[in-house]
Design goal:
The protein is an alpha+beta fold and 455 residues long. It is 33% helix and 20% strand. It is built from ten helices and 16 strands. Strand 3 and strand 4 (166-168) form a beta hairpin. The longest helix has 42 residues, at 34-75. It is globular.
């Protein structure tokens, strides 16, 4: 499989070929021929496809590095000893700590995920519990050594619903599943994530109306009394989210593939897709509130944050400039564009009065571009693509957004349950798995968001 650097080199070669076609037509002071247009579009389409592969490869390398770091850390451990007074409490000489590398928002230094100093100790964090959990996923069998009529059995049964078959996942497993959701969901990489450990809702105080301007007055006067300042509250209710899959029992028994990874990866992907759609297009009714849903009750983003295109059903360079300067400069360091890939294709073809493309390897009206060490940008702001961003060029519809995603808040319950269904699919020789979580999300401040709407 090609490395990230090799894929970037291939993409740079495609862009260079497209540039050569464009330069030839420009030097000869003519429009590109039909064949040249076809080749140009092919090179740029292939370039976009490679960009997706680069992103996937970078994620894979990141996961591999995280796994290596965890293994190296465990290998450096002084060894494990069990406290005889509490067999279920598995620790090293000090407290056993499982560290997961913190992922940083590329646009800032704000940590958006796990606390790197968090300690995972006790029976749910032990190697024995994790091994037993893997055995349970494959066939429901548990280690006799671990469960043989001892204190460990009573401790772990606290977390088991014997009627329904629920089992609390080991802490390592739950953390890795959440990490996969982060990799698959675009907004979660930049949003602010709040984990609810006991409360059922997350209340976010808001300043709805600011204090009026101060008054010019005399030395002994105090100015007019202010009555404008008012406060409100945005409230997030984590909503249930669930997905069910089936796996062949023969595949589970064969052991050629890691059953835990299959369950974890596929459920993580399904959870990620569902959340991404809701964070963008969710109605806010029993699901997250999406940024492309206009609101009038102050709970999301109103139409006051929309920038309408100058031409009917057309996106122009002036519209992009208007969107950027609709945002206060204080937000610029964290702003990111988001469009569907087909909309990016239309932006790539924007030309100036001389017929030259505005988007080039040097970046569109900006400097960051397509070299191996840089990313695509528009007006010097980074660019993201999402398959779920609206892309229908019809009057009155949204086709993109410019946002500081740190003001999109996600509230979730960290405890994630996995249920194994054996009898339900017995006739088809399969085992089913259901994962459940509770998630909500909404923009808590509308000012950092600018949507582009077609005239």
């Amino acid at each position: 499989m090609p490395t990230v650097l090799e894929l970037k080199a291939q993409r740079l070669a495609l862009v260079t070929q497209a540039r050569a076609i464009h330069k030839k037509a420009t030097d000869e002071k003519r429009e590109m021929s039909a064949e040249e247009n076809t080749n140009f579009d092919k090179y740029m389409t292939d370039s976009d496809a490679l960009k997706a592969q680069i992103d996937d490869a970078a994620k894979a390398e990141s996961r591999a590095q995280r796994l290596k770091d965890a293994e190296d850390e465990l290998a450096r451990s002084d060894g494990r000893r069990t406290n005889p007074d509490n067999p279920g409490d598995d620790r090293t000489g000090e407290e056993q700590v499982f560290k997961f590398p913190a992922r940083m928002n590329p646009a800032s230094t704000r940590e958006i995920k796990f606390n790197p100093t968090a300690k995972y100790v006790g029976p749910l964090a032990s190697k024995e519990y994790r091994d037993d959990f893997r055995s349970w996923i494959r066939g429901g069998k548990r280690s006799a050594r671990l469960f043989e009529g001892s204190e460990e059995l009573r401790n772990l049964q606290v977390d088991i619903d014997t009627a329904g078959g629920f089992l609390v996942t080991p802490q390592q497993f739950a953390a890795e599943m959440i990490a996969i959701v982060d990799n698959e969901v675009f907004i979660r990489r930049h949003a602010t994530i709040m984990t609810l450990t006991s409360a059922t809702t997350l209340g976010v105080p808001s300043r709805d109306v600011d204090i009026a301007d101060s008054d010019w007055t005399s030395e002994l006067a105090t100015g007019n009394e202010d009555s404008a300042l008012s406060f409100g509250k945005r409230e997030l209710f984590p909503h249930p989210l669930a997905k069910r899959i089936r796996i062949s029992n023969k595949l589970l028994r064969a052991g050629a593939l890691d059953a835990e990874s299959i369950v974890k990866d596929r459920l993580g992907y399904k959870f990620g897709v569902t959340q991404e759609k809701a964070f963008l297009l969710g109605t806010g009714v029993n699901q997250a509130l999406g940024v492309f849903i206009p609101t009038t009750n102050g709970s999301g983003i109103s139409t006051a944050r929309d920038v309408q295109t100058a031409a009917v059903n057309t996106l122009g360079a002036d519209d992009l400039i208007n969107a950027k300067y609709n945002q206060k400069s204080q937000y610029w360091p964290k702003l990111r564009w988001m469009f569907h890939r087909t909309t990016i294709g239309k932006i790539r073809k924007l030309k100036d009065a001389n017929g030259q493309y505005l988007w080039s390897p040097a970046g569109m009206i900006g400097q960051a571009g397509l070299s191996q060490d840089q990313h695509d940008s528009i007006l010097d702001l980074p660019l993201d693509m999402s398959e779920y961003c609206p892309n229908t060029f019809t009057s009155g519809l949204y086709i993109g957004i410019l946002a500081d995603w740190s003001h999109y808040w996600i509230a979730e319950a960290l405890s994630m349950q996995l249920q194994r269904l054996v009898e339900l699919y017995a006739v088809s020789n399969q085992t089913g798995y259901i994962a459940r979580a509770e998630v909500d999300g909404a923009p808590v401040l509308e000012e950092p968001f600018t949507r582009i709407i077609l005239q």
